[in-house]
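lol ok so funny story. i was supposed to be doing the assay writeup but got distracted and ended up predicting the structure for this chain instead. priorities right. anyway since i did it might as well share w the group, maybe its usefull for someone
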Amino acid sequence: MLCFAGIFISPGFHKLNMVLKYAEALGRALKFCIQPKRFLPVFVLDLVFLSVAMLFIMGNPSVFLMLFLYLAVNPASMASMIGYIVIMALVLCVWGLLRLWVMGALVYQSYKPKDFRKSFDVSFRRFIPLLLSVVIVAIISMVLGLGYISIYLPWISPIGTVLTVLVSLAFFFIYQGVIVKGFGVFKTLKDSWSIFRANKREFKVSKNPLFAAWLILVVFSGLVIGSSRVAMSPALAFTTWILISALITFLLYSRVFSVWLVNTIFSGIITLIFALPFILFMFLGAAQAGMQIGTAQWMASAIVSLLSNTWVLYGLLSVGLIGVAVSTAFSMKLVTEFYMQIKKKRFGLI
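and the output, tada:
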């Protein structure tokens, strides 16, 4: 609650609302994503690989249960599972590469809606720089995430989380740089970084006396949280609160963060609507069995119930995939719309 109070302090936040045309971008994205030719390629691709996964599950239900529930197994059993794990990893790699190609096509369609067939050819020709850009950003996120260090130094974890968020925002427009502008890997990364970095001119703390009060409030509340009984140590709780508060306060001045926030909210709503049948099935099953939701017994019961009703599971997941496909088309179009707004000399970046 206190974190988001900074929204009323930031003079830059109200300014960016007047610059970026949110309603226009949202309207175009919603019209775009409900067109079958936009979301069907994503849906068909996901459905094919869902079918492969379902065949694997039906043929090896016990292996699936062990993998999903992370049950302790002896070394011999784990060795016998390596083959399945490798197969699943290869299938996921193929699916990921094909999906990246389709998403690239969606970005080009967002830029030039009439060039549907050409979009797949453009995405294929620019696939290598797109793939390399995604891989580089993923590697940077993994390294700065500091997960390998937080195992030994738990207080490092909040810092890694903050750095990961900043990296994802700094390279938020890599799809558009490669597909729309035709940039290479490093120019794409530089282009996205320049957009994110351009927001710092709105961060005028010295001319905002309310910011000092906001900062004192954050520090005081952090001390209260650090001294309270929480699951983590007081120092870790305090550090986490301060870092998250500082991050949100900074990001409230960021146009890229505002784009990310709008995209996340609306994409999430679309996905949730189509996922409701699956969610209701899980909750109703738990209610009928009289189990507490979220427990290991509930998870085991829900999985067994789903495996015993394979076609119901397949149908529910298929409906959910429609939502995923529609939200993917929506997200690609919305982000591309904002990218084009930013690049059309509104902010003097070209």
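The mean pLDDT is 75. The chain has one domain: 17-203+253-343.
back to the writeup now i swear
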